[in-house]
């Protein structure tokens, strides 16, 4: 390895948020390696991941402390790191994967350092959010990262209803165990024609990008045992678009039509599955 990489200049004291690869280890930046090589104190959500990354790139620890920092131990670790910063040390916090503070516990540390008037820097680099947006083919002039949808059904429904009205490309993270449920509920809330993109295992060997109307993408994932990191992107709501109002559509149709004909009409209007529309009609106390 080049000697300049083994002996980089030590940066000025302060807190450095270091972006790390989301898959391919070679995506790390030279500046990130310099900071990891010279920081007095290293912190990471998963210290094993950081140690492995440093080993891959030949960055020695040389006895420097590597602290685990996550949501559960933040009350104990943040004061320790703030103390190191006040002592004039270089503290590097590395994301588990991607850019710190994006679905990552670094937020509390950054806020605490700023509140103390301490210098905070960033070593930008990989981001699953921007990588997915780049590959999606969806509008990139306005986008919203909304994190993980709520796990509980009621909260998730409210979340989708709120998100569905936003005139921007939506970017979500989701667990592979819940991706089919999320896509199904998107169909139920928005109809089957809203364009979505599901990115799986970005920059890794089995990278996969699935694009199309949400009904079509839901069918593509229906019988799969999905694994890996997932980013879901949703096309923005354009002016004049309306969200599916299943209850309203059924109420209007049932005024003059039988349940069978009302279900057929509303299914055609909304693009929702016939079974879902029929179930909603029965919930209104109507039967054949």
UniProtKB/TrEMBL annotation:
By its UniProt entry, which Pfam families does this protein fall under? RsmI_C (PF23016), TP_methylase (PF00590)
Keywords for this entry? Cytoplasm, Methyltransferase, rRNA processing, S-adenosyl-L-methionine, Transferase
> What residues form the membrane-spanning segments?
none
- Reaction it catalyzes: cytidine(1402) in 16S rRNA + S-adenosyl-L-methionine = 2'-O-methylcytidine(1402) in 16S rRNA + S-adenosyl-L-homocysteine + H(+)
> Is the keyword Methyltransferase assigned to this protein?
yes
Query: Where does the Tetrapyrrole methylase domain lie?
Result: 15-217
Name of the protein described by the UniProt record: Ribosomal RNA small subunit methyltransferase I
Origin species, per record, is Neogemmobacter tilapiae
Q: Which gene encodes it?
A: rsmI
């Amino acid at each position: 390895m080049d000697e300049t990489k083994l002996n980089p200049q030590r940066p000025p004291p302060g807190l450095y948020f270091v972006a790390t690869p989301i898959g391919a280890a070679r995506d790390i930046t030279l500046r990130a390696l310099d900071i990891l090589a010279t920081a007095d104190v290293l912190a990471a959500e998963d210290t094993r991941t950081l140690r492995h990354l440093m080993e891959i790139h030949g960055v020695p620890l040389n006895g420097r402390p590597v602290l685990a920092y996550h949501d559960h131990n933040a009350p104990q670790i943040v004061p320790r790191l703030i103390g190191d910063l006040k002592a004039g040390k270089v503290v590097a916090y590395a994301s588990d994967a991607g850019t710190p503070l994006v679905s990552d516990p670094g937020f509390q540390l950054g806020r605490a350092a700023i509140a103390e008037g301490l210098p905070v820097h960033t070593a930008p680099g990989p981001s699953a959010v921007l990588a997915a947006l780049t590959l999606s083919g969806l509008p990139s002039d306005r986008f919203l990262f909304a994190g993980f949808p709520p796990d509980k059904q009621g909260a998730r429904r409210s979340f989708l209803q709120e998100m569905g009205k936003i005139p921007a490309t939506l970017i979500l993270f989701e667990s592979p165990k819940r991706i089919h449920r999320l896509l199904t509920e998107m169909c139920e809330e928005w109809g089957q024609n809203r364009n979505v993109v599901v990115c799986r295992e970005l920059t890794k060997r089995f990278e996969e990008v699935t694009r199309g109307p949400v009904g079509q993408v839901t069918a593509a994932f229906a019988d799969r045992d999905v694994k890996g990191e997932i980013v879901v992107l949703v096309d923005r709501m354009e002016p004049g678009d309306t969200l599916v109002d299943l209850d309203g559509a059924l109420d209007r149709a049932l005024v003059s039509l039988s349940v069978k004909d009302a279900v057929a009409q509303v299914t055609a209007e909304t693009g929702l599955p016939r079974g879902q529309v029929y179930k909603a009609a029965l919930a209104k106390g109507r039967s054949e």
